[in-house]
Write a structure and sequence with these properties.
- Helix content is 30%, strand content 27%.
- The protein is globular.
- It is built from seven helices and ten strands.
- A seven-stranded mixed beta sheet has the order 3-2-1-4-5-10-9, with helices on both faces. A three-stranded antiparallel beta sheet has the order 6-7-8, covered by helices on one side.
- The protein has one domain: Vaccinia Virus protein VP39 (Rossmann fold, 3-Layer(aba) Sandwich), CATH 3.40.50.150.
- It is of the alpha/beta class.
């Protein structure tokens, strides 16, 4: 069963520990924002926004309109609480990414760790159709997700030095267990494994073109000792994907 962010105090725990994750600070956020590029004046939708990490960064980067959506009521509550304390003009909604509702003229749709929640190709296809419904023709989708190529590595490094522990899947649709590690706590996630071909196929069928996979990069501000990130960058546990919505007709 996929992780339920509304169960117990999971959302609060996630909010507290994610900021301490080196991977998110040094690699994920840097790579994601670099791939997204200039958002000044654009209408942006952040799907599976959680507590608004990327939502707020995109608004601060100059996006004209930024909306964050998540299926988790509690995550949206946390995002709205932060917006109330530090208002920057972001709107948050509780919505299911698989359902086409509301505004459909966004220039850019982004999603961090959304697609790993799809246990089957059919559910992945539903998500991709939903994402396409929010975009104008020529609009772009960008996401960061688990690396489907993990199981094919000739060597799987010990990711615990980077704050994660992984239990790799053995078949398509199998659970993918990830544990975030800190000195005095852990937080477990259960997602699902699908091959990269499944993602490309789902995007194409949903009306996207120019599908591309991008490897993560290390932020130039990272100050760990030389060689610390070598294994992670050679065998990355995450990738980025982007594509463009084809013109109607």
């Amino acid at each position: 069963m996929a992780t339920d962010y509304d169960e117990g105090d999971f959302a609060e725990q996630y909010q507290q520990i994610k900021g301490a994750q080196l991977v998110r600070e040094r690699v994920e956020t840097y790579s994601f924002l670099k791939l997204v590029g200039d958002v000044k004046g654009k209408k942006v939708l952040d799907v599976a926004c959680g507590d608004g990490h990327y939502t707020r960064l995109l608004r601060k980067a100059g996006a004209a309109q930024v909306v964050g959506t998540d299926i988790s009521d509690r995550m949206i509550e946390l995002a709205r609480e932060l917006e109330a304390r530090q208002p920057i003009g972001v709107e948050y909604r509780v919505e299911d990414a698989r359902k086409a509702v509301g505004q459909s003229d966004f220039d850019l749709v982004v999603a961090g760790w959304l697609l790993v929640h799809a246990p089957t190709r059919d559910e992945l296809a539903q998500m991709c159709r939903g994402l396409a419904s929010f975009l104008r023709s020529g609009g772009r989708f960008v996401t960061v997700s688990i690396n489907p190529g993990l199981s094919d590595f000739d060597l799987v490094p010990d990711y615990r030095k980077y704050g994660y522990d992984l239990a790799l899947p053995d078949r398509e649709g199998a659970p993918l267990a990830t544990t975030m590690l800190l000195e005095d706590s852990t937080l477990e996630f259960e997602d699902y494994y699908l091959p990269i071909e499944a993602y490309e196929s789902a995007f194409t069928e949903a009306g996207f073109r120019d599908f591309a996979v991008h490897l993560p990069e290390l932020s130039p501000t990272a100050d760990e000792e030389p060689g610390f990130w070598d294994d992670f960058l050679k065998y990355p546990m995450l990738i980025l994907m982007d594509c463009v919505k084809s013109a109607a007709g």
